[in-house]
Write a structure and sequence with these properties.
Elements: H1 6-12, E1 22-26, E2 32-37, E3 47-52, E4 58-62, E5 77-78, E6 84-89, E7 92-97, E8 103-106, E9 113-117, E10 123-128, E11 131-136, E12 143-146, E13 153-155, H2 160-165, E14 172-174, E15 180-187, E16 193-196, E17 207-210, E18 220-227, E19 232-234, E20 244-251, E21 254-260, E22 266-272, E23 278-285, E24 298-299, E25 305-311, E26 314-319, E27 322-323, E28 330-338, E29 341-347, E30 354-359, E31 363-366, E32 373-379, E33 382-389, E34 392-401, E35 407-409, E36 423-427, E37 432-437, E38 449-453, H3 470-480, E39 484-489, H4 498-502, H5 510-526, E40 531-541, H6 543-554, E41 561-565, H7 576-583, H8 590-594, E42 609-614, H9 623-634, E43 640-644, H10 654-671
Parallel strand pairs: 38-39, 38-40, 40-41, 41-42, 42-43
Antiparallel strand pairs: 1-2, 2-3, 3-4, 5-6, 6-7, 7-8, 9-10, 10-11, 11-12, 13-15, 14-15, 15-18, 16-17, 18-19, 20-21, 21-22, 22-23, 24-25, 25-26, 26-27, 28-29, 29-30, 30-31, 32-33, 33-34, 34-35, 36-37, 37-39
């Protein structure tokens, strides 16, 4: 293969994720690790496997191909011991015995989703047609515990903003004894209806999508205690003041939940009684927003509440309300608790994420070493450590068990056809983390290079890490076409602490653009004669696409062309929880939205701009690109629009991915007069 094949390889390997072991889960005794993996780097058929931690031998538990399916297993659920595993596949429910390797179907009503075994291994809860149902593992006693009262009502599923913006993908939780469930009821009838049609096939009716636009009504979400004996009790809290359900669970101390106010400035953790009454276990508040972290809140076996607190410029791990991590160590996520031990990830350097543990009598210990992005899961004395680092975009997973040799979980991921060679930099007084990519084979004394800024640059995503992510190969590919590619993580990107995060409150445009320009100027100062300031371009996707379009609209003196993919152009057309977190409610803070509106700035365009839009995108809807294009045309501002048929927020088709990157390259070269 040549480096020219990288764009197609990205699509064929699903950005190097195929063939990678995922969702590892040790059994309760630590002797076995379950995981999902396909057979090769281009094979999408994920199978359920088991690794014996004594012998290191792998066993295939469930093969979709042998079950007559052409799709892979997306996820699985186990009982408390890990002996049984349940999963949905092609509209059927399957149950695997992980010890003897038998797999059989469990009859259900309708097509199951979100199937979850109860901890005792006797029953499976699942959602079908919006109803929360349970069935015995032997296929008997299939019945509904709650059925929807109308269209757009469901039990047991997470609503859109919970799954997309709160890291809460679940909608039902078993009691430890398997006799009851805590269940979310979601009524989407108040939510705005949007319609997404395929203009390339006018015979097809449009899809109707419930989407809570900023400033409009959210889904009405409530919680219910449902007993297998038919009991049904509503969980009571002030839902008018705290309309977001951010987390929930059920442990040995009972059910619990976390709820958040609409302005996101207050979060309460609630203990739930058998009668549905709640009491406040903890409350957090912030003048901007309370940051929600994956895995929180949770309790230890002894009942200590594990949470987080922003103190000064550090996001701490707290146990029973007391910070237990040092200043400067930024908590990223809580992964699990076992006994009184807490497993979590945190960063003392934003380009790295390390795996840590906390125990009351021991304190904080780091379990991982070296640069990279580390995470893991621990159970029964077995730790599964996953590390993403340079040269390994799919990651490496190692099973560590005391008294046993380290065992790899074999990855079949394809190696990238080109090696990314980022030079990590700290730029300017803010010490902006940046990565510089230069053409392969460039020699000292070669002339200055045209510059391509390749940022995301917004909250929720870093591009500058030591984790070797797939997008580094894309940056290197553009560099090998003759660019100096600069990636800068500015204010608002994760990993730098709460003060850094919240500098963007009220303005998602100004600080981010300022940091890209500062990074460019500082990189040019550090590498004199390498970057050509008269040939600067920028490309980006999603928020990065917004930033790219913003750059040529506001600073044509710096940026000479931009390629903007799936760019949100009017933040009023994005969802409530995400958008109001940074800009507030549009009725209360209309100026915040106006100051970040690209459409009103359309008459300023004086540089080449390419807009790329998937026509099936239900995250950043096509209306964003189409309205900006209309405004540019009305203002007599030439530009280009590239619509992508049947493409969602990220293109996946091989030909589309390959030719899209080549089209961007041609546009940028042509805009600089370099073809």
């Amino acid at each position: 293969m040549t480096t020219d094949s990288l764009p197609r390889q990205l699509a064929r390997t699903r950005r190097f994720t195929l063939g990678v072991p995922v969702q590892p889960e040790p059994t309760a005794d630590g002797t076995t690790v379950l995981f999902l993996r396909s057979r090769g780097g281009t094979d999408p058929l994920t199978r359920l496997w088991a690794l014996d931690t004594d012998s290191g031998a792998e066993r295939l538990i469930a093969d979709p191909a042998a079950l007559g399916s052409a799709t892979g297993i997306a996820s699985y659920s186990t009982d408390a011991d890990g002996r049984l595993a349940a999963f949905a596949l092609d509209g059927a429910l399957w149950l695997a015995d992980t010890a003897d390797g038998t797999v059989r179907t469990v009859p259900t009503t309708g097509e199951p989703e979100e199937a979850r075994l109860d901890p005792t291994g006797r029953r499976i809860a699942y959602v079908s047609g919006g109803a929360l149902r349970v069935v015995g593992v032997d296929g008997t006693d299939d019945r509904a515990l709650a059925e929807p009262e109308g269209e757009d009502v469901s039990y047991g599923l997470a609503e859109y903003v919970a799954a997309e913006e709160m890291s809460r993908t679940r909608g039902h939780w078993w009691s430890p004894d398997g006799t009851a469930l805590l269940v979310a009821r979601v009524d989407q009838r108040p939510v705005t209806r949007l319609y997404l049609a395929d203009p390339t096939d006018p015979r097809q009716p449009p899809r109707t999508i419930r989407y809570p636009l900023a400033g409009t009504a959210n889904a009405d979400v409530s919680l219910w205690l449902l007993g297998l004996d038919g009991g049904r009790t509503e969980v009571r809290w002030d839902r008018s003041a705290f309309e977001y359900l951010t987390a929930a669970g059920w442990d040995g101390h009972g059910p619990y939940a976390a709820v958040q106010s609409r302005d996101q400035r207050t979060v309460r953790t609630l203990a739930i009684g058998a009668d549905g009454a709640t009491r406040v276990l903890a409350e957090r508040s912030d003048p901007h927003w309370v940051e929600l972290l994956p895995g929180l809140p949770v309790r230890t076996e002894g009942g200590a509440l594990v949470d987080t607190a922003d103190l000064g410029d550090t996001r701490h791990l707290t146990v029973d309300g007391e910070p237990v991590t040092p200043a400067g160590l930024q908590l990223r996520a809580v992964l699990d608790t076992e006994g009184e031990e807490v497993l979590f990830t945190a960063s003392d350097e934003p380009t790295e994420t390390q795996l840590w543990t906390y125990e009351p009598d021991v304190g904080v210990r780091k379990l991982s070493n070296g640069p990279g992005l580390h995470t893991g899961v621990r159970r029964g004395g077995t730790l599964v450590l996953t590390t993403h680092s340079e040269g390994h975009p799919g990651g490496r997973t190692t099973v560590l068990r005391e008294g046993h040799p380290a065992l790899p979980l074999t990855s079949h991921a394809e190696p990238p056809v080109l090696a990314a060679r980022p030079e990590l930099l700290r730029l300017g007084p803010r010490e902006l983390r940046a990565a510089l990519f230069l053409p392969t084979g460039r020699r000292p004394g070669d002339g200055p290079l045209p510059v391509l800024l390749d940022p995301y640059g917004g909250p929720a995503m870093q591009k500058v890490t030591t984790g070797g992510p797939w997008h580094e190969q894309v940056s290197q590919w553009f560099a090998d076409q003759g660019f100096a590619v600069l990636v800068v993580d500015g204010r608002g990107t994760p990993g730098r602490g709460p003060l850094w995060d919240k500098t963007i409150w009220g303005d998602k445009a100004g600080p981010a653009l300022e940091d890209q320009i500062e990074g460019l100027h500082e990189a040019a100062r550090l590498r004199p004669g390498l970057l050509d300031p008269d040939r600067v371009t920028i490309r980006g996707w999603s928020y990065g696409g917004f930033l790219a379009a913003l750059a040529v609209l506001r600073r044509p003196d710096v940026f000479h062309a931009a390629s903007a993919g799936a760019a949100p152009t009017d933040w009023r057309l994005y969802d409530t929880h995400w958008q109001e977190r940074f800009l507030g409610h549009p009725d209360e803070y209309p100026g915040h939205y106006d100051s970040c509106d690209l459409i009103t700035e359309a008459p300023k365009l004086s540089r080449p701009l390419l807009l790329i839009q998937g026509l099936a995108d239900d995250n950043v809807f096509p209306v964003h690109t189409l309205r900006l294009s209309h405004a540019l045309l009305a203002a007599s501002r030439p530009h280009e629009v590239l619509p992508l048929r049947a493409t969602a927020h990220r293109p996946t088709d091989e030909a589309t991915v390959e030719n899209l990157l080549r089209h961007e390259l041609g546009f940028l070269r042509r805009s600089l007069g370099a073809e």
